[in-house]
UniProtKB/TrEMBL annotation:
PANTHER family: PERIOSTIN-RELATED (PTHR10900), TRANSFORMING GROWTH FACTOR-BETA-INDUCED PROTEIN IG-H3 (PTHR10900:SF82). PROSITE patterns: FAS1. It comes from Rhodinocichla rosea. This is BGH3 protein. GO terms for biological process: cell adhesion; extracellular matrix organization. One of its GO terms (cellular component) is extracellular matrix.
Length: 197
């Protein structure tokens, strides 16, 4: 699948006497903002703006290159327990891992993403991309709220859930999500849960 500024290429190589024509499915708009400038001007990304500033990632998102940012909206951050969010925001290493988990190493327009695709993030983990009807899904969830916001150095898709990598979780949080959750309860009953958090 070939895209031109996220417009899908429908028919290629129509040769004319004075050139060649490629047919695409939408009008291409002028793109002037970097990914960082999109974050700075979009009201629904206010919390992400604060997180990027605290993690010193703004220079990367302003730099030349081609990235895909899965931009968590304010709503996405609000779904996370306040205690967990404050812990991550207060831990530079965990915060950087969290944000890098939302950045892909290449520009991926929605039209070019196909079901079953596995994409590697800057954090080093992978995300499973699929579809539910006409909606894109990430790790099985249809969480993309707005897609294909173009930047000079890539593309932004707004997501309404936070993708927290294992590297940004405490031992306690990892255990709660796994098959050792009963053991976690025993640690808590024994007054030892502070060691896991």
């Amino acid at each position: 699948i070939v895209t031109v500024n996220c417009a899908r290429l429908l028919k290629a190589d129509h040769h004319a006497t004075n050139g060649v024509v490629h047919v695409i499915d939408k009008v291409i708009a002028t793109t002037t903002n970097t990914i960082q400038q999109i974050i700075e001007t979009e009201d629904s990304l206010e919390t992400l703006r604060t997180a990027v500033a605290a993690s010193d990632l703004s220079s990367l998102l302003e730099s030349q290159g081609q990235y895909t940012l899965l931009a968590p909206t304010n709503e996405a951050f609000e779904k996370i327990p306040r205690e967990t969010l404050n812990r991550i925001l207060g831990d530079p290493e965990a915060l950087r891992d969290l944000l890098n988990h939302h950045i892909l190493k290449s520009a991926m327009c929605a039209e070019a993403i196909i079901a079953g695709l596995t994409m590697e993030t800057l954090e080093g983990a992978t995300l499973e991309v699929g579809c539910s009807g006409e909606e894109l899904t990430l790790n099985g969830k249809p969480i993309i709220a707005n897609k294909d916001v173009l930047a000079t150095n890539g593309v932004v898709h707004f997501v309404n859930e936070l993708l927290i990598p294992d590297s940004a979780k405490t031992v306690f949080e990892l255990a709660q999500e796994s098959e050792v959750s009963k053991s976690t309860d025993l640690f808590r009953q024994a007054g030892l849960s502070s060691h896991l958090t």
